[in-house]
Specification:
It is built from 19 helices and no strands. With 441 residues, the protein is mostly helical. The two termini are 21 Å apart. Keywords: Membrane, Transmembrane, Transmembrane helix, Transport. It comes from Algoriphagus aquimarinus. It is found in: Membrane.
Length: 441
């Protein structure tokens, strides 16, 4: 495959990554408003991380399996990764639409599980597709363009409930009922998710295996659940050193962002707006505002990715150094939330977080894709997801509650101090990466 990869222009890369805007609609609505839904349905603040646990557990199981299967898939008409795009898009859009109609906590937690499982089916092949289609010297550019699309999705989706409210849709409801503004936002997200992934499917062609006979023979030898499971385990044991080093960076990064997704709404509505009753107008107005401020990190990540796209299209970059600085900036943004004196300052805090988000969604994958066997790109991208979901699982089963109270005290705003500290540690962990090919584009 690598022998005949040609350079692609911006719009070709844009088309093959456009479906990520829909995937990010799903993740942004999930990340920005699931805790609000949980609180509306009666969840205690300290119970929220455990309600999130289904999401990372699902990713831990599904992404390596989907990666393994997509590596061994080829159809002359439907390609290698595109069948997984379609299946994931269909299931995700259905789950996203129905999630805010949950009437009990167990239903909301189950809906989150189904939603995250479905999104993961589509997301992992998108990462692999960039590595499939682009030569080595365009990898950073490709992942940065993908990040530009993701940032756009994060910003728009995070602002949807706020926008619905401004358009006259009610943002309050009876106790235990999710407001219509959130329901409308999730419905719009479901449509965008399916439509954007369908656009990528229709606009993108995939390269066939370099040697089709060898590909079919190899696939025949590795057919079966047991053999597939052994192959995944073997790939985990023999993963490249750079993946292990990046794993440390990913661990701290995603622990920090899981802390934000779980606690930003209760922490900021209480600390900044003084609103604590989920059924009150004050809380729901504050929660809309939190979504608006969270959208800032998506907007800034979009512009950061745009600048990076312009730069990486012409020049080589030091991926390791860029990632280090970006993560430290985001860590400072989280910490500043504790000290702000007016709500508008949250835009500054989340702008710094957006710089780190742009880097998290591009630089680790660019570094990894330069260090793994192209024939196993899908499975390695799936295994790499372990370093995203394991910290989230640890956070969900009590890690966040234990650490923020131990290190900073009982107030829920201290979760943002924890997130900032972890993100700075993630930045410094880039110093562990020694592979020059991975670190420099």
């Amino acid at each position: 495959m690598a022998n005949y990869k040609k350079k692609l222009d911006f719009w070709q890369i844009w088309n093959m990554s456009f479906g990520m805007i829909g995937i990010q609609f799903g993740f942004a609505l999930q990340g920005g408003f699931m805790s609000r839904i949980f609180q509306t349905l009666g969840a205690d603040k300290d119970a929220i991380p455990m309600l999130w646990i289904a999401a990372p557990l699902t990713g831990l199981l599904i992404q390596p399996i989907v990666g393994y299967m997509s590596d061994r898939t080829w159809h002359p008409k439907f390609g290698r990764r595109k069948p997984f795009f379609f299946i994931g898009a269909l299931l995700s859009s259905i789950a996203l639409f129905f999630t805010p109609y949950s009437s009990a906590l167990w239903m909301a937690a189950g809906a989150l599980w189904i939603l995250d499982a479905s999104i993961n089916i589509s997301m992992e092949p998108f990462r692999a597709l960039v590595a499939d289609k682009l030569p080595d010297n365009q990898r950073s550019y490709g992942f940065v363009v993908q990040t530009l699309i993701i940032g756009t999705g994060t910003w728009v989706a995070s602002n949807l409930p706020w926008l619905m409210t401004r358009m006259g849709v009610p943002n309050t409801a009876a106790e235990g009922v999710v407001p219509d503004s959130v329901k409308y936002a999730f419905a719009i997200g479901a449509f965008v998710l399916f439509a954007s992934i369908l656009y990528t499917i229709l606009k993108t062609e995939e390269y066939p295996p370099e040697d089709l006979e060898e590909f079919e023979a190899e696939k025949a030898k590795t057919r079966g659940i047991i053999i597939g499971f052994k192959e995944v385990l073997k790939s985990i044991v023999t993963m490249p050193t750079v993946m292990k080093q990046l794993g440390v960076v990913q661990f701290f990064s995603w622990f920090a962002f899981f802390t934000m997704w779980s606690f930003a709404t209760p922490a900021i509505t209480e600390h900044v707006f003084g609103a604590t009753d989920p059924s009150s107008a004050a809380y729901n107005n504050a929660a809309d505002s939190v979504g608006n401020y969270l959208g800032t990190y998506g907007l800034v990540s979009m512009f950061a990715a745009l600048l990076l796209a312009l730069f990486t299209s012409k020049y080589l970059i030091n991926r390791k150094l860029l990632h280090l600085v970006s993560l430290v900036a985001g860590g400072c943004g989280f910490i500043l939330i504790y000290f702000i004196t007016a709500p508008w300052m949250l835009h500054i805090c989340f702008a710094l977080v957006g710089i780190s988000w742009a880097s998290i969604l591009s630089m680790p994958y660019a570094m990894l894709s330069s260090s793994v066997d192209p024939k196993k790109m899908g499975i390695y991208m799936g295994i790499f997801n372990m370093f995203i979901v394991i910290p989230q699982i640890i956070a969900a089963i009590g890690g966040v509650n234990f650490l923020y109270k131990l290190l900073f005290g009982e107030a829920v705003i201290n979760t943002m101090l924890l997130a900032g500290t972890l993100l700075i540690l993630a930045g410094l962990s880039n110093l562990l990466i020694t592979d020059k090919k991975a670190a420099h584009d």
